[in-house]
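Q: Make up one entry.
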Amino acid sequence: MAADVLQIVSYLLANVSDFNSALRLPCYSCMSPYLEDHYPYISHLYRKPLSFDTHCDKHSLETSYLYSKNCSDMCVTLRINDVVGGRRRHGYMRGCLSDLHGYNHSLIRTLAERQGCLDTTARELFLPTAQRQELEPSRLSLCACHNNLCNFSVSPPCFFIFLFVILVIFLMR
Protein backbone atom coordinates (compact mmCIF):
# COMPACT_ATOMS: atom_id res chain seq x y z
CA MET A 1 0.00 0.00 0.00
CA ALA A 2 2.75 2.44 0.92
CA ALA A 3 4.59 1.66 -2.32
CA ASP A 4 1.43 2.44 -4.33
CA VAL A 5 0.99 5.79 -2.59
CA LEU A 6 4.65 6.62 -3.11
CA GLN A 7 4.39 5.75 -6.80
CA ILE A 8 1.35 7.98 -7.28
CA VAL A 9 3.00 10.91 -5.49
CA SER A 10 6.19 10.45 -7.54
CA TYR A 11 4.20 10.30 -10.75
CA LEU A 12 2.28 13.48 -9.86
CA LEU A 13 5.44 15.39 -8.96
CA ALA A 14 7.20 14.35 -12.16
CA ASN A 15 4.40 14.66 -14.68
CA VAL A 16 1.64 16.97 -13.51
CA SER A 17 1.66 20.75 -13.47
CA ASP A 18 -1.99 21.27 -12.42
CA PHE A 19 -2.66 19.19 -9.28
CA ASN A 20 -6.36 20.09 -9.08
CA SER A 21 -7.11 18.40 -12.39
CA ALA A 22 -4.64 15.57 -11.76
CA LEU A 23 -6.72 14.12 -8.96
CA ARG A 24 -9.83 14.08 -11.13
CA LEU A 25 -9.02 12.19 -14.29
CA PRO A 26 -12.32 10.73 -15.52
CA CYS A 27 -12.00 7.21 -16.94
CA TYR A 28 -14.59 4.71 -18.13
CA SER A 29 -15.17 1.88 -15.66
CA CYS A 30 -16.58 -1.41 -16.97
CA MET A 31 -15.90 -5.08 -17.65
CA SER A 32 -17.14 -7.55 -20.21
CA PRO A 33 -20.39 -9.15 -19.02
CA TYR A 34 -19.04 -12.72 -19.03
CA LEU A 35 -16.50 -11.66 -16.37
CA GLU A 36 -19.28 -10.86 -13.89
CA ASP A 37 -19.91 -14.58 -13.25
CA HIS A 38 -16.17 -15.13 -12.83
CA TYR A 39 -15.54 -12.02 -10.72
CA PRO A 40 -15.21 -13.88 -7.38
CA TYR A 41 -12.26 -15.76 -8.94
CA ILE A 42 -10.54 -12.67 -10.33
CA SER A 43 -11.34 -10.16 -7.57
CA HIS A 44 -7.77 -10.52 -6.25
CA LEU A 45 -6.56 -9.09 -9.60
CA TYR A 46 -9.08 -6.34 -10.39
CA ARG A 47 -11.29 -3.93 -8.45
CA LYS A 48 -14.98 -4.32 -9.29
CA PRO A 49 -16.01 -1.91 -12.08
CA LEU A 50 -19.06 0.34 -12.07
CA SER A 51 -20.74 -1.91 -14.65
CA PHE A 52 -20.52 -5.21 -16.47
CA ASP A 53 -21.85 -4.18 -19.87
CA THR A 54 -21.85 -5.49 -23.44
CA HIS A 55 -20.90 -1.99 -24.58
CA CYS A 56 -17.58 -2.47 -22.79
CA ASP A 57 -16.97 -5.68 -24.71
CA LYS A 58 -15.81 -4.02 -27.89
CA HIS A 59 -12.54 -2.84 -29.40
CA SER A 60 -13.90 0.70 -29.65
CA LEU A 61 -16.95 1.24 -27.50
CA GLU A 62 -20.16 3.22 -27.52
CA THR A 63 -19.42 5.58 -24.67
CA SER A 64 -22.92 6.95 -24.06
CA TYR A 65 -23.91 3.71 -22.30
CA LEU A 66 -21.00 3.57 -19.85
CA TYR A 67 -20.21 5.03 -16.45
CA SER A 68 -17.06 6.93 -15.63
CA LYS A 69 -15.20 7.52 -12.39
CA ASN A 70 -12.43 9.80 -11.22
CA CYS A 71 -8.93 8.38 -11.14
CA SER A 72 -5.73 9.72 -9.64
CA ASP A 73 -3.30 7.84 -11.87
CA MET A 74 -3.97 6.71 -15.47
CA CYS A 75 -6.90 5.37 -17.45
CA VAL A 76 -6.32 1.80 -18.61
CA THR A 77 -7.90 -0.70 -20.95
CA LEU A 78 -6.97 -4.32 -20.43
CA ARG A 79 -7.85 -6.72 -23.25
CA ILE A 80 -7.90 -10.26 -21.96
CA ASN A 81 -7.45 -13.17 -24.35
CA ASP A 82 -9.38 -15.98 -22.68
CA VAL A 83 -10.32 -19.52 -23.57
CA VAL A 84 -13.84 -20.34 -22.38
CA GLY A 85 -15.29 -23.73 -23.21
CA GLY A 86 -12.47 -24.42 -25.65
CA ARG A 87 -13.15 -21.23 -27.64
CA ARG A 88 -11.11 -18.05 -27.72
CA ARG A 89 -12.80 -15.04 -26.21
CA HIS A 90 -11.74 -11.44 -25.73
CA GLY A 91 -12.75 -9.69 -22.54
CA TYR A 92 -12.20 -6.09 -21.53
CA MET A 93 -11.55 -4.30 -18.28
CA ARG A 94 -11.57 -0.50 -18.39
CA GLY A 95 -10.84 1.72 -15.43
CA CYS A 96 -8.00 3.24 -13.44
CA LEU A 97 -4.51 1.86 -13.09
CA SER A 98 -5.24 1.59 -9.37
CA ASP A 99 -8.05 -0.88 -10.21
CA LEU A 100 -5.34 -3.46 -10.94
CA HIS A 101 -4.23 -5.14 -7.71
CA GLY A 102 -0.53 -5.89 -7.26
CA TYR A 103 0.70 -5.00 -10.72
CA ASN A 104 4.33 -5.03 -11.82
CA HIS A 105 5.50 -1.42 -11.34
CA SER A 106 8.45 -1.80 -13.73
CA LEU A 107 6.14 -2.91 -16.52
CA ILE A 108 3.74 -0.02 -15.87
CA ARG A 109 6.60 2.48 -15.72
CA THR A 110 7.60 1.42 -19.24
CA LEU A 111 4.03 1.85 -20.40
CA ALA A 112 3.60 5.26 -18.71
CA GLU A 113 6.73 6.62 -20.41
CA ARG A 114 5.42 5.94 -23.89
CA GLN A 115 1.64 6.19 -23.24
CA GLY A 116 0.30 3.51 -25.52
CA CYS A 117 -0.25 -0.24 -25.45
CA LEU A 118 1.85 -3.12 -24.24
CA ASP A 119 1.39 -6.80 -25.03
CA THR A 120 2.19 -8.91 -21.99
CA THR A 121 0.99 -11.92 -20.01
CA ALA A 122 -0.88 -12.25 -16.73
CA ARG A 123 2.28 -13.65 -15.13
CA GLU A 124 4.28 -10.58 -16.19
CA LEU A 125 1.62 -8.01 -15.26
CA PHE A 126 0.71 -9.25 -11.78
CA LEU A 127 3.33 -9.79 -9.10
CA PRO A 128 3.26 -13.27 -7.55
CA THR A 129 1.44 -13.76 -4.26
CA ALA A 130 -0.02 -16.80 -2.56
CA GLN A 131 -3.17 -16.43 -4.69
CA ARG A 132 -1.34 -15.71 -7.93
CA GLN A 133 1.26 -18.46 -8.07
CA GLU A 134 -0.80 -20.47 -10.53
CA LEU A 135 -1.63 -17.72 -13.05
CA GLU A 136 -1.75 -18.95 -16.60
CA PRO A 137 0.52 -17.20 -19.09
CA SER A 138 -2.53 -15.88 -20.99
CA ARG A 139 -1.91 -12.98 -23.34
CA LEU A 140 -3.05 -9.51 -22.32
CA SER A 141 -2.95 -6.15 -24.05
CA LEU A 142 -2.70 -3.25 -21.62
CA CYS A 143 -3.22 0.30 -22.85
CA ALA A 144 -2.81 3.41 -20.71
CA CYS A 145 -3.50 7.09 -21.26
CA HIS A 146 -3.57 10.36 -19.29
CA ASN A 147 -6.47 12.26 -20.88
CA ASN A 148 -10.12 12.56 -19.84
CA LEU A 149 -12.15 9.47 -20.80
CA CYS A 150 -9.35 8.26 -23.05
CA ASN A 151 -9.80 4.53 -22.36
CA PHE A 152 -12.50 4.03 -24.98
CA SER A 153 -10.23 2.17 -27.39
CA VAL A 154 -7.34 -0.28 -27.09
CA SER A 155 -5.11 1.42 -29.64
CA PRO A 156 -4.78 4.69 -31.53
CA PRO A 157 -7.19 4.88 -34.46
CA CYS A 158 -5.44 3.21 -37.37
CA PHE A 159 -7.38 5.31 -39.86
CA PHE A 160 -5.71 8.53 -38.68
CA ILE A 161 -2.27 6.94 -38.71
CA PHE A 162 -2.92 5.71 -42.24
CA LEU A 163 -4.01 9.21 -43.35
CA PHE A 164 -0.90 10.73 -41.81
CA VAL A 165 1.36 8.30 -43.68
CA ILE A 166 -0.44 9.00 -46.97
CA LEU A 167 -0.12 12.75 -46.38
CA VAL A 168 3.64 12.47 -45.69
CA ILE A 169 4.15 10.39 -48.85
CA PHE A 170 2.11 12.88 -50.89
CA LEU A 171 4.08 15.86 -49.55
CA MET A 172 7.43 14.17 -50.31
CA ARG A 173 6.63 13.95 -54.03
About this structure: The radius of gyration is 17 Å. The first helix runs from residue 2 to 15. The first strand starts at residue 25 and ends at 28. Residues 22-156 form one domain.
